[in-house]
């Protein structure tokens, strides 16, 4: 499936 | 990391320091909404679940721990600290924030990047953060005059997400595949909710007068 956005932000 | 995001994180940290300073220095939490503080604690707990699973950077980990710890400390202080809890405006802080929790959770079930628990909780934390300030703004309008530290607290809290919007624009322009619609749209709504506060804050700053929000 579509990979979710990388959570590199606070 | 770009300068806009760093400025946003530092402004966010500053807002928490100002609030802690106000509570510690005045041993009072008058004018502060406990409900907003509880919503922020929920936002951080729901968003930083990956604290122990995904290591991004030392900075990222430290900031997550600081945000979780400080938001829980403020809630603890306002609920249990013998001196501080007496000054809590319980009768003014009547916003039904459970509707905010329920509504944003349902929205997260419908609108998320992936139907997994972590992604749903992440989207929930993004939506909840956008509306978490509402009980605080309502309380400020009810309590009439706003003390300086509380006004600065709300101002920095609103300014941090505005910096994040600049960060998203910058990343959209510089990173080929950067899209983060949930955070972007929710962040714009969040900053918009502060618009009227920013307006009255600017007026009071320009006239060098006490900040008063119209009831």
UniProtKB/TrEMBL annotation, chain B:
- Transmembrane ranges, per UniProt, are 55-77, 98-115, 121-141, 153-173, 179-202
Under InterPro entries, the record lists:
ER_ret_rcpt
Protein name per the record: ER lumen protein-retaining receptor
Regarding protein family, the annotation reads: Belongs to the ERD2 family.
Q: What is the protein's membrane topology class?
A: Multi-pass membrane protein
> What cellular component terms from Gene Ontology apply here?
endoplasmic reticulum membrane
* Localization in the cell: Endoplasmic reticulum membrane
Q: Which GO terms describe its biological process?
A: protein retention in ER lumen; protein transport; vesicle-mediated transport
Q: Name one GO molecular function term.
A: ER retention sequence binding
Major site of localization recorded for this protein: endoplasmic reticulum
Q: Which UniProt keywords apply?
A: Endoplasmic reticulum, ER-Golgi transport, Membrane, Protein transport, Receptor, Transmembrane, Transmembrane helix, Transport
